[in-house]
Specification:
This protein is of the alpha+beta class. The protein has 16 helices and 23 strands. Bound molecules: adenosine-5'-diphosphate (ADP).
Length: 508
């Protein structure tokens, strides 16, 4: 029987989606379903892991129903990173809701941790945790969330010590269920997901004893770490799936986007413009340690023991700044209106907008910063503020780009872009001008799902090489800088002054 497609299962923070791709990387069918956001207290965010598994089965079944003649060669998974599930290996029941990456319940623990002798970290995030894991001590990552479950769910620690409980990020939970669950499910993760837990040593690509000891986590509950492109196991027969389909790709969402953008060589970079901004730069086999507020992370691995690394910079307020104009200021009706008004304004008239609503993330990591609009004159109208809001997305991108170039010694000449906001041509042109590099938009914008499909397809030889995948990637449009270097640098200098004004605002 001919196998003529790959299924990508894209499990995101708000929804789960399945896209079937043919051998040209063209989507044949897709289906998407939202799941509930559970917020039991301010700052706490949970998901029902069973609901996520239910949605995953549903979207697989529905996508196949739309392309009934498609024969799957493999399934690839990509997922919201850092979200934690703990379940009983015998019953398959989670012991608590999944604790989502956004959840801040372990913030106090993280603040205390940073003060413990030997674990101190500088404002740029340097310290022992950074050296071992490439990450910062921050409630964003899985380790302290897992510790919270073991400390706070009755009996969990004992059951974990006895070997009755399993831990996983969402990829692990889905693969375990897809491959049979209590009837012999495979308990694995890949290097990209493992690297977001605070528990994996990025040098050895294995669980780090000292991190596990500190957080008091039994190693027996952790999944085996495998490459991102690898046959982990076969699907078990269920109402939504045939038996025997290889589950063969696993990448955290941002790494999947890098892979889906075919950024396979050192110096290649992608920036995702969604709610936040996520930039990853491929640094090759070299592990670039950041002195400038970035994270060091595995980008993907194709075989055991080897890994391609990336530098990562994330910003909280990307497209969300435009949502704020729409929902809070109500000066636009839709996100698309931002382009209309920015074009009308021609420029921001000297107005700078720093959207530090919840502090500044990379490269500043200043949680005391707050939003600021500066440079206002009587000339300024809503058009200038909208224009300045769009420019803030581009300046924040340049902040990260500069940090990346310093940390890696790589001169980036081209940025591949994806995410919901890249439909805005005016924004893309601003980005090229402010960054001084060309901005390249792909034809197929669902790069996260595509990356998961690529990883699975490589593992089962549906595609034979990275070169073949490179040929599948197609450009929609490039934007080249049109302003002079002097103009660009003068504007950027003002942005840095605006940033200074926003910093330290919430202190005392
Ligand atoms: P996520 O995956 O984080 O939910 P998406 O990739 O779906 O985000 O992108 C949605 C974001 O893109 C929203 O924050 C929205 O404000 C922004 N956005 C959508 N269209 C535009 C546009 N034309 N101009 C600027 N921003 C936009």
């Amino acid at each position: 029987m001919d196998r003529d497609c790959i299924a990508a299962l894209d499990q995101g923070t708000t929804s789960t989606r399945c896209i079937l791709f043919d051998s040209e990387g063209t989507p044949l069918a897709s289906h998407q379903q939202e799941h509930a956001q559970i917020c039991p207290r301010p700052g706490w965010v949970e998901h029902d892991a069973n609901e996520i598994w239910f949605c995953a089965q549903n979207v697989l079944r529905e996508a196949w129903a739309k392309a009934p003649s498609a024969r799957p060669a493999a399934i690839g998974i990509t997922n919201q990173r850092e979200t934690v599930v703990v379940w009983d290996r015998k019953t398959g029941e989670p012991v608590y809701n999944a604790i989502v990456w956004q959840c801040m319940r372990t913030q106090d623990f993280c603040s205390e941790w940073q003060r413990i002798k030997g674990w101190e970290q500088t404002t740029a995030g340097c310290g022992k945790v950074k050296d071992k894991t490439g990450l910062l001590i921050n409630n964003y990552f899985s380790g302290t969330k897992l510790r919270w479950i073991l400390e706070n769910v009755g009996g969990a620690k004992e059951r974990a010590r006895q070997g009755d409980l399993l831990f996983g990020t969402i990829d692990t939970w889905l693969i375990w269920n897809l491959t049979g669950g209590v009837r012999g499910g495979i308990h694995v993760t890949d290097v990209t997901n493992a690297s977001r837990t605070l528990l994996m040593n990025i040098h050895t690509l294995s669980w780090d004893e000292e991190m596990l000891d500190f957080l008091d986590i039994p190693v027996s509950m952790l999944p085996r770490i495998e490459p991102s492109s690898h046959v982990y196991g076969m699907t078990a027969k269920s109402a939504s799936l045939d038996a025997g389909i290889p589950v063969a790709g696993d990448l955290g969402d941002q790494q999947a986007a890098l892979f889906g953008q075919a950024c396979f060589e050192p110096g290649m970079l992608k920036n995702t413009y969604g709610t936040g901004l996520f930039m990853l730069l491929n640094t090759g086999a070299a592990l670039a340690s950041s002195q400038n507020g970035l994270l060091t992370t595995p980008a993907y691995s194709l075989e055991n023991g080897s890994c391609v690394y990336a530098l990562e910079g994330s910003v909280a307020m990307g497209g969300a700044t435009i949502q704020w104009l729409r929902d809070n200021l109500r000066i636009i009706d839709t996100a698309d209106d931002s382009e209309y008004f920015a074009k009308k304004a021609k420029d921001s008239g000297g107005v700078y907008f720093v959207p530090a609503f919840s502090g500044l993330f990379a490269p500043y990591w200043d949680m005391s910063a707050r939003g600021a609009i500066v440079g206002l004159t009587r000339y300024a109208r809503k058009e200038q503020i909208i224009c300045a809001a769009l420019e803030s997305i581009c300046y924040q991108t340049r902040d990260i780009l500069e940090a990346m170039q310093k940390d890696s010694n790589i001169n980036v000449s081209e940025m591949k872009v994806d995410g919901g906001a890249v439909v805005n041509d005016t924004l893309m042109q601003m980005q090229a001008d402010i960054a001084g590099s060309s901005v390249v938009r792909p034809f197929f914008k669902e790069t996260t799902a595509l990356g998961a499909a690529y990883a699975a397809g490589l593992a089962v030889k549906f595609w034979d090489s990275l070169d073949t995948l490179k040929r599948l990637w197609k450009k929609d449009r490039s934007f080249a800088p049109v302003i002079t270097t002097e103009e660009r640098n003068a504007k950027y200098k003002k942005w840095l002054r605006a940033i200074e004004k926003s910093r330290g605002w919430d202190e005392g």
